[in-house]
Amino acid sequence: MELDAKPPVEGRDFRFTILGGIGTTRITVRLNGKVVHDNDCPDPPCHEEIRIPAGEGGAELVVIAKDSAGKVLERKFIVGRTEGQAGGFMSA
Fold first, then answer.
1. Which domains, and CATH codes, for the chain?
2. Which domain of life does this protein belong to (predicted)?
């Protein structure tokens, strides 16, 4: 199995795809050890999306996928920090 994703960033959506799973694939996401997403994907490829809360920059995010054939994929990320608020600025 493979995981396709851009690195997670606090305050933004984290989208990822699990490729190559056989049958139903169980996907669990942990943020600093706490389960924040737990889902069965019956028909891979699996397209998943979760929101990374603001203030979680530097946290460890772990994605675990296990398919019906017993294959397991585990990938760890460090959540990126944002530089201030998104958007532009106003000038007079």
1. 2-78 (2.60.40.3110)
2. Bacteria
